[in-house]
Amino acid sequence: MSSVLLERGRARTRWRRWLYGGLGAAAAVGLLAVLGVLIPLDWVTTLSAVFMYILLAEGWNILGGYAGYLNFGMVTFFGVGAYTAGVLCTQYNVHPLLTIPLAGIMATVVALLVGVPALRLRGVYFAILTLIISFLTQVLVTNLDITGGASGIYMPSLPFDPFTNEQIFYYAFLGLMLLAVLLAFIIEHSRFGYALVAIREDEDPAEILGVRTTWLKTQALLLGAFLAGVAGAIYAFHTSYIEPQGTFSLDISIDVVLMSLVGGLGTWQGPVIGVPLMLVTAQVLRILAGELPFFGSTIPPEFDRVVFGIILILVALLAPYGVMGLVRRVRGRRLTV
């Protein structure tokens, strides 16, 4: 009898947690939707970048967080998506909206051709190989005529005023970010997600126990590549200009990894926490630094690196498993009291 009552109590607790979580998520989405028409242009641009990086980080987290494969090649799929949209739109007159899913598909194809063989490696060797692939892709794009070489590609602009243009990309990134977060939530609570975690904990025993490790890692890589390709395509139209050095910048991959680490690896909440924490903090400090006499109106490009480094050091000292690890530790103490 007592066990039945205990199980009913747990069921009620889970139901309440899901209810409150759903209400909180709906309130947050509604607030973000309203903010798009209330806040000034600078903050619309900043939040668009936040949404884009959450989209990228959730895609990276599928393989890098749940499966534990440190992947520095996310910028490869991002750049391939951006250039796919650019080439199709400017040279083949494909409608911009149609280029976005095609960019995701092309990034997935590249991941299948290049990334899947790389999954034969593990640990630091896999990480180094993804770095090499990113550099080689940048060199290839720089030397191809169809991509415009080092000169890049000028993308068509939307026929609206700057604020309306920014709002359109704000809601585009917001919608895709929500889909990516929902996908990560579903994966985390599915057999697919549990199997990826088994790979992270110890891949060889997982394979012995029947986990199809190669196929699961491939799925994780392809899902992340598709999300990165779509993000790259929208980024290309957002910036109106893409070139190899900026579009394939290693900083993008490093930032995605750092943001996921700060928020908490292997959790759908990690990127949602880590990205705003780092980007919004950097933006606020940049505004404050611009008012200091020794900075003036010009903020050095290394400023973000310094801010990100300080945040990472603080998290490593205070919360080695990220913010979500700290939250779970506090929650666990409450349950034991």
From TrEMBL:
Pfam family, any one: BPD_transp_2
GO cellular component: plasma membrane
Domain of life: Bacteria
Compartments, as annotated in UniProt: Cell membrane
InterPro entries attached to this UniProt entry: ABC_transp_permease, LivM-like
MF GO annotations: branched-chain amino acid transmembrane transporter activity
Keywords of this entry: Cell membrane, Membrane, Transmembrane, Transmembrane helix
Annotated membrane topology: Multi-pass membrane protein
Coiled-coil residues: none
Transmembrane region(s): 18-39, 45-63, 70-88, 94-116, 123-141, 168-187, 220-242, 307-327
Keyword hit for Transmembrane helix: yes
The protein's name in its UniProt record: Branched-chain amino acid ABC transporter permease
Species: Thermogemmatispora aurantia
Organism lineage string: Bacteria, Bacillati, Chloroflexota, Ktedonobacteria, Thermogemmatisporales
